[in-house]
Specification:
629 residues, alpha+beta, 4-stranded mixed β-sheet, 40% helix
């Protein structure tokens, strides 16, 4: 219940955002829903005068279709043939009193009867405002479809019945396909109608954007709630509910986090008679917690194949995301001309500075919540991972991750679209692509991201299969394009470095066998690349034999070194420095270690660091002073 309590408290802390429209990066609108409200995509908008007369109507553009509507417990969870009207805006079969007269099909009872009776009670209550009364007056006349036909929003066939689906045979009646058939998926009878009140003398807020309308229904509906019961979330007595919200991840999401509707099956397994005996949750807490969750997902959640990754703070919603890379946290690229290489400690200090802004105003309630949600079926949503921790501890864990799982990367772009270098940890999604390739199935990607989360927030060891998979792909550059291999290589180095604790800067004193073999491979690669020149794009022998080299280093090195001779000859004296460097590095490998034992991931660190170091230097014909003895 702790995640529900924290979501409820988040709602209470952000009451000022209730009903205020915000926009996502793609332009889609969202808001923190008032309780007893939900969202629905509307197809038709009807304007009504303050006197309760029809004014105008139009088909709604899909970009403007999302509508905030009041809802009851029954309407929020209605399905199939069950009659449960929304209090105000609803489908044509509910809101049109002349639906049957125009050929509308109903199964048994007429939905409009239930709808108008419910609307009448609200309109006659002390909490009703003038807009509710105006809409009720108009709909009571039972002429909605007739008015929409006159307005050329809905269309009839030769029998004066609503056209179910558009067909070429109707082209004789109408010149072109009406807009309503493009807006709705099914027939016209499935169109969802929203109502607005129009005034010629004053500017009125749209009904679905009017705070007074929200308050009107919330206050009215509070009087209809059932008996009080103990809420297991807050520990207080208040009206409870057994019907909880859906549409959590998006407007089409039918999955629920809390449900108990199988009273005749094996849900309770003989332990309870009623679902309330398991846990009782108040209506207010359920509404506020679910609405806060929907809002947070829209605001800052990450969704991969319907799996939601969400992090938020109790006192400050904007918290650095554990699944993002260091560039997102500290977007300062390293100048290509800058040869300074951070040590891990120096970089940890830089990360600490970047996180200082999140440490301001820390209080006793400064906590961070991390939650992962996914559904196994269309109706059930599960909490796969939940972690609530002290904010300062979380920031310390984040600092540790971003200063230990680090390497130099070149695959991010700045605001101008140019590739930049940055030093730090990769995003967990990029780790998935490094381990399984950029075309990896989203189910695999989201699974890896979930497995990596405890490595960041709980300082668990990175699973060995992930490191090994990234290592194997980085050791096989011929299987991918150059840009993909470079990205895979730097990410694999970051994962290996998390275990080994190396720096990007070349370690001239390192006598580790695998590290030295990696240096040899890098020198051979740079030597051949310089001989080929910038115009030649084919892979060097060092790159082509890299996979074999990682498995049989001594035997493969002989092949690579033999293939270097013509390139050394082509370079002449320009190859002296690199040839001498090969001799120097090879002499550091102990005689008994120069064998075909497979290399560990440390050879990639040696390869990357040596190659990076050589590319940072200008070509020299002879530089014995830089060779360490």
């Amino acid at each position: 219940m702790s995640w529900l309590l924290n979501l409820y408290e988040t709602y209470e802390s952000n009451l000022g955002s209730v009903g205020k429209i915000e926009k996502r990066h793609n332009g889609q609108e969202f808001t923190l829903l008032p309780i007893s409200h939900t969202t629905q995509n509307a197809h038709i908008e009807v304007d009504i005068t303050e006197e309760g007369e029809f004014h105008s109507a139009r088909v709604i553009d899909k970009k403007d279709a999302s509508t905030l509507i009041p809802c009851t417990e029954g309407s929020a969870s209605r399905a199939g043939s069950k009659i449960a009207p929304y209090p105000l805006h609803d489908k044509l079969s509910y809101v049109a009193g002349d639906f049957v007269a125009f050929g509308g099909k109903i199964k048994e009872e007429e939905p409009f009867t239930y709808y108008i009776e419910q609307l009448e009670k609200w309109a006659n209550s002390p909490f009703a405002n003038s807009k509710v009364i105006s809409i009720y007056k108009y709909l009571s006349k039972k002429q909605l479809i007739a008015d929409l036909v006159k307005e050329k929003v809905l269309f009839l066939d030769a029998n004066n019945h609503l056209i179910e689906t558009w067909d070429k045979k109707y082209e004789s009646l109408y010149e072109e396909k009406p807009a309503i058939f493009t807006a709705v998926t099914g027939g016209q009878e499935s169109a969802f109608v929203r109502f607005n009140v129009h005034s010629p003398n004053k500017i009125l807020k749209k009904v679905w954007k009017d705070e007074e309308m929200y308050k009107s229904f919330v206050n009215y509906y509070q009087t209809l709630l059932g008996e009080e019961d103990l809420c297991f979330v807050t520990g207080e007595k208040s009206p409870s509910t057994e019907r909880h919200a859906n549409k959590i991840r998006n407007a089409a999401d039918k999955a629920k986090l809390i449900s108990a509707n199988d009273t005749s099956g094996f849900t309770f397994r003989g332990r309870f008679n009623k679902s309330s005996e398991v846990a009782s949750i108040s209506y207010e807490v359920s509404q506020k917690a679910h609405n806060a969750l929907k809002w947070l997902i829209n605001r800052q959640g990450k969704t991969i194949d319907q799996r939601v990754f969400l992090v938020w703070g109790n006192d400050d919603l904007s918290i650095p995301d554990p699944i993002e890379d260091t560039f997102s946290l500290h977007p300062i690229p390293i100048d290509k001309k800058d040869r300074k290489a951070f040590t891990n400690q120096e970089f940890a200090n830089e990360i600490a500075k970047a996180l200082d802004g999140y440490r301001n105003n820390l209080s006793s309630k400064s906590e961070v919540n991390i939650i992962i949600l996914d559904s196994a079926t269309t109706g059930r949503l599960a909490v796969l991972y939940y972690r609530n921790m002290n904010k300062e501890l979380y920031l310390d864990r984040l600092k540790n991750w971003h200063s230990t799982c680090v390497w130099l990367h070149r695959y991010r772009k700045d605001d101008s679209g140019e590739y930049v270098q940055f030093y730090g940890a990769p995003a967990t999604k990029d780790i998935a692509f490094a381990a399984y390739g950029p075309k990896a199935n989203e189910k695999i990607v989201k699974g890896l991201m979930e497995r990596m989360l405890p490595c960041v927030v709980d300082e668990k060891r990175i699973p060995l299969d992930i490191v090994k998979s990234a290592f194997n792909r980085a050791s096989n550059p011929v299987s991918m394009e150059k840009w993909e291999w470079e990205k895979t290589l730097s990410i694999a180095c970051a994962l290996i470095n998390k275990q080994e604790g190396y720096n990007v800067a070349l370690d001239l004193e390192n006598r580790d066998r695998d590290y030295l073999f990696g240096r040899l491979l890098a020198i051979a690669d740079v030597l051949e690349r310089r001989a080929l020149g910038s115009e030649e794009t084919r892979s060097t022998n060092a790159i082509r034999y890299m996979n074999s080299f990682s498995k049989n280093p001594a035997r493969t090195w002989k092949t690579i070194q033999d293939s270097l001779q013509p390139y050394q000859a082509r370079l002449g004296t320009k190859a002296r420095y690199l040839s001498g460097l090969i001799d120097e590095v090879a002499s550091r490998i102990d005689f008994e270690d120069f064998n075909n034992k497979p290399l560990s991931g440390k050879y990639l660190l040696g390869f990357y660091s040596q190659r990076h170091d050589l590319y940072q230097k200008k070509e020299k014909t002879d530089a014995p002073e830089v060779i360490a003895h």
